[in-house]
Amino acid sequence: MTTPASPPLSPRGGSATPVLSLASEAYPLVKTGGLADVVGALPAALGEHGYLLTTLLPGYPALAPMIRGGREVHRWPDLIGAEARLVEASLGEHALLILDAPALFGRDGGPYGDTGGRDWDDNWRRFAALARAGAEIAGGVVPGYRFPLLHAHDWQAGLAPAYVRALDLPVKTVMTVHNIAFQGRFDLSLFPALGLPDWMASIHGVEYYGALGYLKAGLQAADAITTVSPTYAREIRDPTFGMGLEGLIATRAASVSGIVNGIDPAVWSPAADAALPARYTAATLDDRTVNRNAVETTFGLAPADGPIFTVISRLTWQKGMDVLVDLLDDLVASGGRLALLGSGDKSLEAAFLAAATRHPGRIGVRIGYDEALSHLLQGGADAILIPSRFEPCGLTQLYGLAYGCVPVVARTGGLADTVIDANEAALAAGVATGIVHDGVTPDALRHAIRRAIDLYARSDTWRRLQRNGMAADFSWRESGRRYASLYHDLMEPA
Fold it and tell me: InterPro entries this protein is in (predicted)?
């Protein structure tokens, strides 16, 4: 960690445009899911297109060393009811601002809840404070800082565009929806504490079905809305996927676009991944055998001829895990094995552990999350199962493609946008990269698993699937260009 000698007031070389990125987490500092990976990757992705991103994060305990080594640049005696100060720091070449408010963020547990997994009762205040600070910083409350564009991520930053509008700040705003199911809904009686004008207590502001809606507020107020895949941008206009916000999304359709997430090749590259016992390329796929053996050893799987499937996921209904767990006897009977890494619903955790007990040597389960182990599974398993009912973008299928771990996915959201089904036409054209199934039903998923097992037995065909996936470019190059184009259009309209 280093501290800049001066705040990033003007872009490097005097030509880049400063942008404030506002989020509740960012890799590698704080991570609970894919949001952190995206926020952590955006500064580098946008830097080559002339935008200098500064990321504003809450001052969680994990950031304490950076807070101690940083430089205070502003104080709020009362920020939505809490004392707070702004600390300037950096992570490598990326500029950071940290909202140091111990009463809000200096507590044990996760970013959103306590050690028992219960949401903090004051999340409404914690993330209102983050959003208000972000709006004021972008608008120039800190001497020498000014950001003409604020990019807010998910409900935790959703009030920021509303504050920009309420304070009439000369700032353009982008609201990115990573998962519309998570909306930040709170009791409407809390509205007076937010410091917003009375008119915003209506449907035209933060009111949402008789409650406060933080994500809804951002979608209402932002100049532009993005989701993390083109298909998801279309899906959330439908009640099946819109989670009650489909009407608002439809009215703002002209401002909504989908940009597929990228992955960072500096972190996810089988040719250079330190977490793999054997590194490899598309030309040296035989070297994956060493990693495959390591997966067998780690998960207690007996050697066998059939494929090793992996699951690296939250164990939830959204991810289709309830359907998958009921098919595990069939998966094993068909010649497959499973190595699972994940946690979530306690009944699903118990069901997967029970399946491992029924099938020793065929199913191995690790409850929890381990970053290095997730890399090993991508680099050693043969196929990754992602039967999500909805998936805004998904990153694990992108990692699977990059690592030659063939994705078996449901046709939804970013999964549909990134995996090409191995139907006969796609196989004949040499473009297939995985197996895609329609619907998350026992029959559909069973058929997809059996298709994968049959294709695995055709070794030359399977190798083509692996190499096709590894040849695809899912870096941030194109996604960064599209974000840059959006920024440009907002700040310099035609």
Answer: Glyco_trans_1 (IPR001296), GS/SS (IPR011835), Starch_synth_cat_dom (IPR013534)
Q: Give me 414's structure tokens.
A: 């970013």
Q: Indicate whether 362 and 387 sit together in one domain.
A: yes
Q: How many domains does the chain have?
A: 2
pLDDT in tens, 280-334: 999 999 999 999 999 999 999 999 999 999 999 999 999 999 999 999 999 999 9
Q: In the 8-state DSSP scheme, what is residue 398?
A: H
Distance separating alpha carbons of residues 145 and 188, to the nearest angstrom: 33
Per the CB < 8 A criterion, the answer to whether 185 and 127 are in contact is no
Within 10 Å of residue 5's Cβ, how many Cβ atoms? 6
Same domain (yes/no): 459, 483: no
Q: What CATH number is given to the structural domain containing 416?
A: 3.40.50.2000
CB-CB contact of 407 with 369 (8 Å): no
CA distances, 76 to each of 12, 85, 160, 218 (Å): 29, 6, 17, 23
CA of 204: how far to CAs of 190, 201, 218, 250, in Å? 17, 8, 11, 15
Name the token pair of 469. Answer: 């996936």
For 99, half-sphere exposure in the C-beta direction (CA atoms, 13 angstrom radius) is 32
Co-location of 319 and 252 in the same domain: no
Residues at the binding site for ADP-alpha-D-glucose are: 31
* Residues of the domain holding 335: 282-472
**DSSP tag of 26:** B
Mean pLDDT per 10-residue section of the chain, whose length is 494 residues: 36 71 95 90 93 97 96 97 97 94 96 92 98 98 94 98 97 97 97 97 95 98 97 95 96 96 91 98 98 98 97 96 98 98 96 98 96 97 98 95 98 97 97 97 98 98 98 91 96 72
Do residues 136 and 161 share a domain? yes
Backbone φ/ψ region at 206: left (φ over 0), alpha (ψ -120 to 50), beta: alpha
CA–CA separation, 42 vs 97, rounded Å? 15
In a domain, 115, yes or no: yes
Are 242 and 295 within one domain?
no
Distance CA 107, CA 121 (A): 13
Closest by CA position to 400, among listed 416, 414, 381, 417 = 381
> Binding-site residues, please?
31
DSSP 307: P
Check: pTM over 0.70? Answer yes or no: yes
Beta carbons of 458 and 451 less than 8 angstroms apart: no
